[in-house]
Predict the 3D structure of the following.
Amino acid sequence: MNTTKGKVSYSLEDFPFLSAGHIHVWNVSTNPTDGLLERCRDALSEMELKRVPFFKFEDVRQNYIISQGILRILLGAYLNITPRDLKIGRHSKGKPFSLDDPKLCFNISNSGGLAVYGFSREGEIGIDIEHQRPLPDLEQMITKNFTSSEIKFINAKPAEKSQRFFRFWTVKESYLKAIGEGMRLPPDCLEFSIEESKIRLLSVKGVFEQEDWHFEEFSPAKNYVGTLTTMRPDLTVEQMDVSILF
Protein backbone atom coordinates (compact mmCIF):
# COMPACT_ATOMS: atom_id res chain seq x y z
CA MET A 1 0.00 0.00 0.00
CA ASN A 2 1.45 3.32 -1.04
CA THR A 3 0.78 6.60 0.72
CA THR A 4 1.29 9.92 -1.03
CA LYS A 5 3.42 12.40 0.86
CA GLY A 6 1.85 15.63 2.09
CA LYS A 7 -1.78 16.64 1.90
CA VAL A 8 -3.77 17.74 -1.10
CA SER A 9 -6.52 20.33 -0.70
CA TYR A 10 -9.56 20.77 -2.94
CA SER A 11 -12.62 22.98 -3.21
CA LEU A 12 -16.03 21.57 -4.06
CA GLU A 13 -15.65 23.07 -7.54
CA ASP A 14 -12.45 21.05 -8.03
CA PHE A 15 -13.26 17.92 -6.08
CA PRO A 16 -10.94 14.91 -6.52
CA PHE A 17 -12.06 11.92 -8.55
CA LEU A 18 -11.77 8.66 -6.64
CA SER A 19 -10.07 6.48 -9.20
CA ALA A 20 -9.59 2.70 -9.18
CA GLY A 21 -6.87 1.51 -6.85
CA HIS A 22 -7.04 4.58 -4.62
CA ILE A 23 -8.35 5.40 -1.16
CA HIS A 24 -9.01 8.95 0.00
CA VAL A 25 -8.49 9.79 3.68
CA TRP A 26 -9.77 13.16 4.89
CA ASN A 27 -8.81 14.75 8.24
CA VAL A 28 -10.91 17.44 9.88
CA SER A 29 -11.03 19.18 13.23
CA THR A 30 -14.39 18.80 14.96
CA ASN A 31 -13.85 21.97 16.96
CA PRO A 32 -16.48 24.46 15.73
CA THR A 33 -15.37 27.54 13.80
CA ASP A 34 -17.29 30.43 12.28
CA GLY A 35 -19.76 29.07 9.75
CA LEU A 36 -18.65 25.43 10.05
CA LEU A 37 -21.33 24.38 12.53
CA GLU A 38 -24.07 26.09 10.51
CA ARG A 39 -22.94 24.56 7.23
CA CYS A 40 -22.73 21.11 8.74
CA ARG A 41 -26.14 21.46 10.36
CA ASP A 42 -27.59 22.41 6.97
CA ALA A 43 -26.20 19.16 5.53
CA LEU A 44 -27.98 16.87 8.01
CA SER A 45 -31.10 14.91 7.19
CA GLU A 46 -34.34 15.52 9.07
CA MET A 47 -33.82 12.34 11.09
CA GLU A 48 -30.28 13.38 12.06
CA LEU A 49 -31.49 16.83 13.08
CA LYS A 50 -34.08 15.22 15.36
CA ARG A 51 -31.31 13.31 17.12
CA VAL A 52 -29.31 16.42 18.03
CA PRO A 53 -31.36 17.53 21.09
CA PHE A 54 -30.98 14.08 22.67
CA PHE A 55 -27.25 14.61 23.22
CA LYS A 56 -26.93 15.93 26.76
CA PHE A 57 -23.72 17.97 26.45
CA GLU A 58 -23.12 20.85 24.04
CA ASP A 59 -19.69 19.63 22.95
CA VAL A 60 -21.11 16.20 22.11
CA ARG A 61 -23.92 17.81 20.09
CA GLN A 62 -21.42 19.92 18.15
CA ASN A 63 -19.18 16.93 17.53
CA TYR A 64 -22.13 14.98 16.13
CA ILE A 65 -23.28 17.84 13.89
CA ILE A 66 -19.81 18.45 12.47
CA SER A 67 -18.76 14.83 12.01
CA GLN A 68 -22.05 13.77 10.39
CA GLY A 69 -22.37 16.99 8.41
CA ILE A 70 -18.91 16.68 6.89
CA LEU A 71 -19.58 13.04 6.03
CA ARG A 72 -22.65 14.13 4.08
CA ILE A 73 -20.79 17.03 2.42
CA LEU A 74 -18.02 14.68 1.27
CA LEU A 75 -20.41 11.95 0.12
CA GLY A 76 -22.47 14.55 -1.71
CA ALA A 77 -19.37 15.83 -3.50
CA TYR A 78 -18.32 12.33 -4.56
CA LEU A 79 -21.81 11.48 -5.81
CA ASN A 80 -22.89 14.94 -7.02
CA ILE A 81 -25.92 14.88 -4.73
CA THR A 82 -27.09 17.61 -2.35
CA PRO A 83 -25.83 16.48 1.10
CA ARG A 84 -29.23 16.61 2.79
CA ASP A 85 -30.74 14.47 0.01
CA LEU A 86 -28.26 11.61 0.40
CA LYS A 87 -29.69 8.28 1.48
CA ILE A 88 -27.55 6.51 4.07
CA GLY A 89 -28.54 3.02 5.15
CA ARG A 90 -27.16 0.63 7.73
CA HIS A 91 -26.23 -3.00 7.43
CA SER A 92 -27.72 -5.50 9.87
CA LYS A 93 -24.95 -4.87 12.40
CA GLY A 94 -25.06 -1.09 12.10
CA LYS A 95 -22.31 -0.18 9.61
CA PRO A 96 -23.48 2.76 7.45
CA PHE A 97 -23.42 2.61 3.66
CA SER A 98 -24.58 4.72 0.72
CA LEU A 99 -27.96 3.73 -0.69
CA ASP A 100 -27.29 6.03 -3.65
CA ASP A 101 -24.09 4.16 -4.60
CA PRO A 102 -23.34 1.06 -2.46
CA LYS A 103 -20.02 0.56 -4.27
CA LEU A 104 -18.68 3.76 -2.69
CA CYS A 105 -17.47 2.39 0.66
CA PHE A 106 -16.65 4.70 3.53
CA ASN A 107 -15.81 4.71 7.21
CA ILE A 108 -15.34 7.37 9.87
CA SER A 109 -13.54 7.68 13.20
CA ASN A 110 -13.04 10.55 15.63
CA SER A 111 -11.01 11.12 18.77
CA GLY A 112 -9.83 14.13 20.73
CA GLY A 113 -11.30 16.79 18.44
CA LEU A 114 -10.20 15.17 15.16
CA ALA A 115 -12.24 13.12 12.70
CA VAL A 116 -11.00 11.03 9.78
CA TYR A 117 -12.99 9.75 6.81
CA GLY A 118 -11.94 6.98 4.44
CA PHE A 119 -13.49 6.46 0.99
CA SER A 120 -12.89 3.59 -1.42
CA ARG A 121 -14.38 1.84 -4.44
CA GLU A 122 -12.23 -1.23 -3.82
CA GLY A 123 -14.32 -3.04 -1.21
CA GLU A 124 -15.05 -2.48 2.44
CA ILE A 125 -12.67 -0.48 4.59
CA GLY A 126 -12.32 0.29 8.28
CA ILE A 127 -10.56 3.26 9.82
CA ASP A 128 -9.80 4.15 13.41
CA ILE A 129 -7.77 6.82 15.18
CA GLU A 130 -6.93 7.51 18.80
CA HIS A 131 -5.52 10.57 20.49
CA GLN A 132 -2.62 9.33 22.60
CA ARG A 133 -3.34 10.43 26.13
CA PRO A 134 -2.80 9.19 29.71
CA LEU A 135 -5.23 6.46 30.74
CA PRO A 136 -5.67 5.94 34.50
CA ASP A 137 -7.02 2.43 33.84
CA LEU A 138 -4.40 1.46 31.26
CA GLU A 139 -3.47 -1.81 32.98
CA GLN A 140 -7.10 -2.92 33.18
CA MET A 141 -7.70 -1.95 29.56
CA ILE A 142 -4.72 -4.03 28.45
CA THR A 143 -5.79 -7.07 30.47
CA LYS A 144 -9.40 -6.85 29.31
CA ASN A 145 -8.90 -6.30 25.58
CA PHE A 146 -5.81 -8.22 24.51
CA THR A 147 -4.58 -11.79 24.27
CA SER A 148 -1.62 -13.08 26.26
CA SER A 149 0.81 -12.73 23.32
CA GLU A 150 -0.41 -9.20 22.61
CA ILE A 151 -0.02 -8.26 26.27
CA LYS A 152 3.51 -9.62 26.20
CA PHE A 153 4.33 -7.38 23.22
CA ILE A 154 2.72 -4.30 24.82
CA ASN A 155 4.55 -4.79 28.11
CA ALA A 156 7.92 -5.65 26.52
CA LYS A 157 9.02 -2.01 26.51
CA PRO A 158 7.55 -0.11 29.51
CA ALA A 159 8.42 3.30 28.02
CA GLU A 160 6.33 2.44 24.93
CA LYS A 161 3.46 0.70 26.75
CA SER A 162 0.86 3.42 26.17
CA GLN A 163 1.82 3.89 22.52
CA ARG A 164 1.73 0.14 21.87
CA PHE A 165 -1.67 -0.07 23.54
CA PHE A 166 -3.13 2.60 21.25
CA ARG A 167 -1.52 1.01 18.17
CA PHE A 168 -3.11 -2.36 18.89
CA TRP A 169 -6.42 -0.72 19.81
CA THR A 170 -6.74 1.08 16.46
CA VAL A 171 -5.76 -2.09 14.59
CA LYS A 172 -8.55 -4.06 16.27
CA GLU A 173 -11.12 -1.27 15.97
CA SER A 174 -10.42 -0.65 12.28
CA TYR A 175 -10.72 -4.37 11.50
CA LEU A 176 -13.99 -4.72 13.42
CA LYS A 177 -15.36 -1.69 11.58
CA ALA A 178 -14.24 -3.08 8.21
CA ILE A 179 -16.14 -6.32 8.76
CA GLY A 180 -19.13 -4.45 10.18
CA GLU A 181 -18.92 -5.83 13.70
CA GLY A 182 -18.01 -2.65 15.56
CA MET A 183 -17.33 -3.68 19.14
CA ARG A 184 -19.90 -6.51 19.08
CA LEU A 185 -17.00 -8.95 18.81
CA PRO A 186 -14.90 -8.50 21.97
CA PRO A 187 -11.40 -7.26 21.14
CA ASP A 188 -9.76 -10.10 23.07
CA CYS A 189 -11.35 -12.55 20.59
CA LEU A 190 -8.95 -11.22 17.97
CA GLU A 191 -5.23 -11.87 17.94
CA PHE A 192 -2.80 -9.73 15.94
CA SER A 193 0.94 -9.53 15.67
CA ILE A 194 3.05 -6.46 14.95
CA GLU A 195 6.55 -7.29 13.73
CA GLU A 196 8.77 -4.56 12.28
CA SER A 197 5.62 -2.46 11.62
CA LYS A 198 4.02 -5.33 9.65
CA ILE A 199 0.58 -6.17 11.04
CA ARG A 200 -0.94 -9.63 10.71
CA LEU A 201 -4.31 -10.95 11.83
CA LEU A 202 -3.54 -14.33 13.37
CA SER A 203 -6.86 -15.62 14.63
CA VAL A 204 -10.50 -14.81 15.39
CA LYS A 205 -11.99 -16.50 18.46
CA GLY A 206 -8.92 -18.72 18.62
CA VAL A 207 -9.37 -20.00 15.04
CA PHE A 208 -6.64 -19.27 12.48
CA GLU A 209 -7.89 -16.48 10.21
CA GLN A 210 -8.16 -17.34 6.52
CA GLU A 211 -9.28 -13.97 5.15
CA ASP A 212 -6.51 -11.80 3.78
CA TRP A 213 -7.07 -8.33 5.24
CA HIS A 214 -4.41 -5.65 5.05
CA PHE A 215 -3.53 -3.04 7.67
CA GLU A 216 -1.83 0.33 7.20
CA GLU A 217 -0.80 2.45 10.17
CA PHE A 218 -0.81 6.22 9.84
CA SER A 219 -0.67 9.36 11.97
CA PRO A 220 -3.31 11.96 11.03
CA ALA A 221 -1.77 14.56 13.38
CA LYS A 222 0.78 14.92 16.16
CA ASN A 223 0.08 12.59 19.12
CA TYR A 224 -2.44 10.55 17.11
CA VAL A 225 -2.20 6.99 15.88
CA GLY A 226 -4.45 5.36 13.31
CA THR A 227 -4.99 2.21 11.28
CA LEU A 228 -6.67 1.70 7.92
CA THR A 229 -7.98 -1.80 7.14
CA THR A 230 -8.55 -2.77 3.49
CA MET A 231 -9.22 -5.84 1.39
CA ARG A 232 -6.25 -5.27 -0.94
CA PRO A 233 -2.54 -4.57 -0.32
CA ASP A 234 -1.89 -2.58 -3.49
CA LEU A 235 -4.07 0.45 -2.87
CA THR A 236 -2.68 3.98 -2.95
CA VAL A 237 -3.78 6.07 0.03
CA GLU A 238 -4.13 9.80 -0.60
CA GLN A 239 -4.28 12.12 2.40
CA MET A 240 -6.75 14.96 1.86
CA ASP A 241 -7.20 18.17 3.86
CA VAL A 242 -10.87 19.04 4.28
CA SER A 243 -10.22 22.49 5.73
CA ILE A 244 -10.22 24.08 2.26
CA LEU A 245 -13.92 23.22 1.98
CA PHE A 246 -14.94 25.57 4.79
The chain has two domains: 1-7+18-123+236-246, 126-230. The CA atoms of residues 148 and 191 lie 9 Å apart. The chain has a mean pLDDT of 89.
